[in-house]
Amino acid sequence: MLLFIGLGNPGSRYLRNRHNIGCMAVQAIARKHGIGPWKRRFQGAVAEGAIAGKRVLLLLPETFMNDSGRAVAEAVNFYKIPLGDVVVLQDEVDLPPAKVRVKSGGGNAGHNGLRSISAHVGNEYRRVRLGIGHPGIKELVHSHVLADFSKADMAWVEAVCEALAENAEFLARGEDATFQNKVHLALAAKGFIDSKEQDEESDADV
Hints:
Blueprint: E1 2-6, H1 21-32, E2 39-41, E3 44-51, E4 54-61, H2 68-79, E5 86-92, E6 100-104, H3 112-121, E7 126-131, H4 141-145, H5 153-166, H6 168-172, H7 176-189, H8 202-205
Parallel strand pairs: 1-4, 1-5, 5-7
Antiparallel strand pairs: 2-3, 3-4, 6-7
């Protein structure tokens, strides 16, 4: 069993927040791969299906971001899932918009959802870091992540979610470097990131 977690806050108020891009991405994966229906379980919404022949549980915690670890721990402990098979999709202010990086373990960079998950299950899970950009001033980060994407932003947000869903089979197989590269090429082809830019962090992050 693989566990894909989309981080965000529950409820319509937060639906289009930058902080919820992880949740948006997992919902896109569910649609693309016909995974469903969604059910209430593990203090969140879950859907079970298959990607690339691998059994996958999708989880959208409904504990609010700061307590995401409670929902994740319930699912991990119930299915006895190794942390290497746990994939967290999250917003990342330290990456430009539409940039995607895959990382295993490491620090939480001030992300409260990751901090909660690490406190409950340990740190060696995989993270799909979805760039949302930085407001430029540390004091503005909180309001930045809890603000809605603009209508203009939604073009690249939808492209990111589509690229993730299209290439989720590589993530399911544990081919993180290939997944990251495929997503990069897809977004470059649509003009959301520089096609000539070298993916210099790929080897270090994966």
